């Protein structure tokens, strides 16, 4: 497996002053975890984005701060901007490679379901993330879920159907929990009932005459009508 490396420097500013770090093309970050004190960092924003695409939150990154030794970390949390979605801040969590930890792993749905494409059903994804426990180096990047087995409306995929690598344990104890199924299309009678419910649910206030909006152009006409 290719080693993913990242270099950072100690950050001397905090709080509102971190905005100056971002204007210089750098990303404010923090590292904490086993055997280290919490430390404020800064690193090139573009380099972090490249590494984040490779590692996500499930792959080990060798983080080197200044001239110190590289530490094995996970990208634990990433704060994004509300408007543009740019990365604003990142957390790195130092791990011990021989100590179990918990992590969330996404489900990746593959294949085609005949119940969807021929039966015109709707695929229901009840679970898209699962929590596992394993060693840091064994964290799966994702779990593939093949929906081809859902060839009728009676079939289901549960947690018990997930293929777990050796050394990886699901934290959810109820393995009968639904992961995915295909719901049949609604009948004409059900659609008619839904239409009736929507029509009957329109509030009376919405059916009242719309208020007159007075603009500068028609304000004079309104004044003349009021005088009559």
Can you describe what's shown?
With 228 residues, the protein is α+β, with helices and mostly antiparallel strands. The chain folds into 2 domains: 4-94, Ribosomal Protein L25, Chain P, CATH 2.40.240.10; 101-183, RNA Polymerase Alpha Subunit, Chain A, domain 2. The protein is 21% helix and 36% strand. The strands form 3 sheets. Strands 1-3-2-6-5-4 form a 6-stranded mixed barrel. Strand 5 and strand 6 form a beta hairpin. The longest helix is centred in the last third of the chain and has 13 residues, at 188-200. Residues 210-220 have low confidence and may be disordered.
Note the main attributes of this structure.
single chain; 228 residues; Ribosomal Protein L25, Chain P; RNA Polymerase Alpha Subunit, Chain A, domain 2; 2 domains; six-stranded mixed β-barrel; 6 helices; 13 strands; 36% strand
